[in-house]
Design a protein that fits this description.
This protein is of the alpha+beta class. The protein has 13 helices and 6 strands. Strands 3-4-2-1-6-5 form a 6-stranded mixed β-sheet, with helices on one face. β1 and β2 form a beta hairpin. The chain starts with a helix and ends in a 29-residue tail after the last helix.
Length: 352
């Protein structure tokens, strides 16, 4: 009896050991990247957007075989607990991979929880490529968590009446905007050139004249679109353009005042936040100058919206106070700009 009991205990121990061994480990580089993003967020968030530090930073990291969930208070039943990670200050859960390794998105991915979750592949599997741009992208997605955390966000989005019955949210990507209409393409190209000029203008007098010309052309572009098409374009500028602008702000602040952690700096693909800032800064203007609506389609909203935000920083520095109140049309934030225009150059560093 004792022998049988001993064998049973031994078998139970072996089963438990085998189960423990089946639990995957969060890859070291990913763990360091995630920890750096959380650390950077603590440093920059409220300096960029008021109240941003209070927003949950739930992340689902997608690797080759597994998905790892951190900072999420309501994991679904298909996740298993690995344990508590003191570096991430979070419990870590895992499940077999479901999503694409290339994904970089934010949505309520852990059903039935309504919590907005960043769903992102490893740096090497995504467009980010390396660690520092990946951390900046994570901050872009974390800004979407700030947007969607607003009490009436979803009510306001639904009130746009653009979904055409789609309840999955995919209409935000697939809306039938007239990207291929020549008149719309030509007006957008002209508008983009005017935006580049006014952002790069160095004197207050010239800026005021060019801003007036730009806003007039922007109104003409609006009139060239059907009302729903303009609502969609404006919504995308508000949502994705400002998220890209937030990358710019985070990278600029990190380049000037933030000191990356030792483990992060030791990663083989580490690059400085100063390099990341220069890349974002130059890309905004370069893309705005060269992209074509018919080729890039929805992607044009990223540099366009970011450039408008950089212009707003100069002509109406208080525009962010209206962002979550008066939503979905950046044009509105220029309305009170006349009395707040500055005389200094607008981001001269955009010039090559």
């Amino acid at each position: 009896m004792k022998r049988q009991l001993a064998i049973s205990i031994l078998l139970l121990h072996l089963v438990n050991v085998g189960t423990a061994q089946e639990k995957p480990a969060l890859p070291y580089a990913d763990r360091v990247r995630l920890a750096e993003a959380l650390r950077l967020n603590s440093f920059v968030s409220d300096r960029v957007w008021k109240g941003w530090s209070k927003i949950p930073f739930a992340v689902l990291l997608i690797t080759q075989d597994y998905e790892f969930l951190i900072r999420h208070p309501q994991p679904s039943s298909d996740f298993s607990l690995i344990g508590y990670d003191p570096l991430l200050k979070s419990k870590v859960y895992f499940r077999k991979r479901i999503f694409s390794k290339r994904l970089q998105a934010t949505f309520p991915a852990i059903q039935p929880s309504p919590i907005s979750t960043i769903v992102i592949g490893e740096a090497e599997s995504t467009e980010s490529g390396t660690s520092t741009p990946w951390v900046i992208t994570l901050m872009h997605e974390h800004f979407h968590q700030l947007q969607t955390s607003q009490a009436t966000y979803y009510v306001s989005v639904n009130a746009l009446n653009l979904s055409r019955g789609d309840k999955t949210g995919m209409w935000m990507l697939n809306y039938a905007f007239p990207y291929d209409q020549k008149e719309v393409q030509d007006q957008f190209l002209s508008l983009s050139k005017l935006l580049v000029n006014v952002v790069n203008t160095e004197t207050g007098l010239d800026r005021g004249t060019q801003l007036t010309e730009y806003l007039r052309a922007r109104s003409e572009f609006e009139r060239a679109l059907k009302p729903d098409d303009y609502k969609y374009f404006s919504f995308q500028l508000w949502q994705e353009g400002i998220a890209h602008y937030t990358e710019y702000r985070v990278a600029k602040l990190a380049a000037a005042k933030y000191h990356p952690g030792k483990q992060f700096r030791a990663l083989k693909d580490f690059t400085s936040f100063a390099d990341a800032f220069r890349e974002i800064r130059d890309t905004i203007i370069n893309q705005l100058s060269t992209q074509r609506l018919g080729e890039k389609k929805r992607e044009v909203v990223y540099p366009f919206g970011a450039a408008e935000a950089l212009l707003l920083d100069e002509v109406n520095p208080s525009w962010q106070s209206r962002y979550f109140v008066d939503r979905f049309d950046l044009r509105k934030y220029f309305d009170t700009s006349a009395s707040t225009r500055r005389e200094e150059p607008v981001h001269r560093s955009h010039r090559r």
